Amino acid sequence: MLSVARGLAARTGRLTACSGDRCVLGPAGRCQRAAALRTSAPRPAPLPPAVWLVLRPITKLAAVLFGRAYRKWWQALPKNKRAVFMASVRRNRRKIAAASALVGGLSLNYYYSHLQTTPVTGRTRFVAFTPEQIVKISQEGFEMMIEEHAMDTLPPDHGFYRTVVRVANRLLSANRDLAEMQRDWAVTVVADDAHVNAYAMECGNIVVFTGMLLMCDNDDQLGCVLGHEMAHTVLGHSGERLSKAHLLDLLMILPLAAIWAFLPNDGISVFAHWFFRQMVTLLGDLPHSRALETEADEVGLHLAARACFDVREASAFWAKMSMKKELAGEADVLDWLSTHPADASRREGIDQRIPELERVRALCRCHPMPERDPRAVVEEFRKMLLEQAAARRPHPKSVPLELPRAGSGG
């Protein structure tokens, strides 16, 4: 993989976020005062990722096997020996309680020692990996992506490539006072029109598929999209997601063991195991993922506003995404069943933040946004397309009502 990445080095552009004071260069070329963003230094939390990746499935399997073995042992145990075992448990209940308290205390200490403050937003969260470990993991992921799309990356002189670099540099220049922006950034554009996606990685790689570029009408929409993706990196969401999965796996050990130990047979245990996993996903994984997306929307819009992009274009972009699904006959996924907020929810959240973002743009001395609201333009276009679709829809043919003839029977 490394050789492939090196071979494509000439086709992957480098960007540099230069450090400096709080004055940033706006689109007019004059020095401007940037709106302040809070930062915080994460505390190290050593945990080798390779060890965790190996232990993650092993701990679940061990919990299942232990619980099942205990059930088999208990079911085969004579009643008199069951009574002896329960009597032994009662005699040693203080030791058992002390051991449980010790394990609980160590677990709480592990949890609280790995709490840190999220950059920019100041939210407290659990992170089990160091920034260096997350960068290494993301670099490996990038190399796998490069290997998969080795023949599809666009060269630096391509128009799409230059567009992404121009927009990304504008975001970096306007937010260079943010400590989390101080890294070596790289741009890779993948020629895949069917893939409407873009993401930024902890190692500094910004990957954009041409399907996303075709969905963006202008630099403002692309700036809002890249601002969102770079916000994920600034906020360290990759490490937080991995840490949340790690924490949930640890918390699931005892419930899984109990499911397989105390339910009467394997069939019921399998169903209970599946149901428990679905509830963890529905009540734990998905809400957390949606919260991170909403946080990235908020911070990304601030990054875009400081770069003097028209942040209303973010709402217009999601309106277009929703319209695309609507015209294709696809239903929008319910919020609580998705890793991302529904398009309508995202538009509503963005629209609520527009007044605040206008103040950020004013503080950064940006030019006023155009009078023509892009959200209204997209809505007018949507109505026109729906009217055209309704006009092309064939009307059901009317069937004449035949009255019975005079003298006919019946």
Give a structural overview:
The protein has 410 residues and is of the alpha+beta class. 60% of the residues lie in helices and 8% in strands. The protein contains 13 helices and 8 strands. A 4-stranded mixed beta sheet has the order 1-6-8-7. A hairpin with a 4-residue loop joins β7 and β8. Mean pLDDT is 83; it is low at 1-14, 16-45 and 406-410.
How do the strands and helices of this protein lay out in sequence?
Elements: H1 2-7, E1 13-16, E2 23-25, E3 31-33, H2 49-76, H3 79-91, H4 93-113, E4 115-117, E5 124-126, H5 131-148, H6 159-174, E6 184-190, E7 198-200, E8 205-209, H7 210-215, H8 219-234, H9 237-262, H10 266-306, H11 312-327, H12 343-363, H13 374-392
Parallel strand pairs: 6-8
Antiparallel strand pairs: 1-6, 2-3, 4-5, 7-8
- From N to C, what is the helix and strand string? HEEEHHHEEHHEEEHHHHHHH
Mean pLDDT: 83
Radius of gyration: 28 Å
Structural class: alpha+beta
Shape: elongated
Count of helices? 13
Biggest pleated-sheet summary: 4 strands, mixed
From the structure provided, what is the oligomeric state, counting identical versus distinct chains? Answer: single chain
The number of strands is 8
Low-pLDDT windows of residues: 1-14, 16-45, 406-410
Strand residue percentage = 5-15%
How are the strands of the largest sheet arranged?
Answer: 1-6-8-7
* N- and C-termini, Cα separation: 84 Å
Q: Could you estimate the helical fraction of the residues in percent?
A: 55-70%
List keywords for this structure.
410 residues, alpha+beta, two-stranded antiparallel ribbon, 13 helices, elongated, disordered N terminus, disordered C terminus
